[in-house]
Specification:
rod-shaped, 0% strand, mainly alpha, disordered C terminus, 6 helices
Length: 183
């Protein structure tokens, strides 16, 4: 009888340690998801800064476009670790629209494309675009790990008890689904 009691206590202690371990894994992964969103937001903010520099360079070439570009800079929103995936994607879509307008303006002003400030700013925009892409890949990898832990048995029981819920992935935007044409 004593042996059964001791075995029961040992099993109970092992289960408690397992629950604590699973809970801590959920917390760790959720924090990594939050950090990933914050990293993406920081990269998008940096990209907006690069766009602002590009706009400053572009303003010198046309008064009409200057007013349009000033309106564009007002669209920039403050993003952070608490921003949702949809807010980050919406901001990204706005930024892509801005870049498209800037490229169209630069086509109208050949001297602008030769400007060192313009070239440097475009290189920075491209660098930050790559940083955002990498941050999204890391974020989606962490979300995959978190969601997998949440769905797998028996950790799904612990996830349900502590009300953990699935995190959203960054999806490929419709505008970027196809490669651009050089025609």
């Amino acid at each position: 009888m004593l042996f059964v009691g001791i075995a029961f206590v040992v099993v109970l202690i092992l289960i408690i340690f397992w629950v604590i371990s699973v809970y801590n894994n959920f917390i760790t992964l959720r924090e990594r998801v939050t950090n990933g969103r914050a990293q993406i937001a920081a990269q998008i903010e940096s990209r907006w800064d690069a766009i602002s520099n590009l706009i400053s360079a572009t303003k010198q070439y046309s008064k009409h476009e200057s007013e349009v570009l000033e309106n564009i800079t007002e669209k920039r929103s403050n993003l952070g670790k608490d921003s949702s995936v949809s807010e980050l994607e919406e901001n990204d879509a706005q930024l892509n629209n801005v870049v498209g307008r800037l490229i169209a303006i630069s086509e109208s002003y050949p001297d602008l494309k030769a400007s060192e400030v313009y070239k440097t700013s475009m290189e920075n925009v491209d660098k930050y675009e790559n940083n955002v892409r990498n941050a999204r890949m890391v974020y989606n990898d962490v979300v995959t790990r978190f969601n997998r832990l949440l769905k797998q048995f028996p950790t799904n029981i612990i996830g349900g008890i502590f009300n953990f819920s699935e995190e959203a992935y960054f999806e490929q935007s419709e505008g970027k689904a196809e490669m651009p044409s050089w025609d």
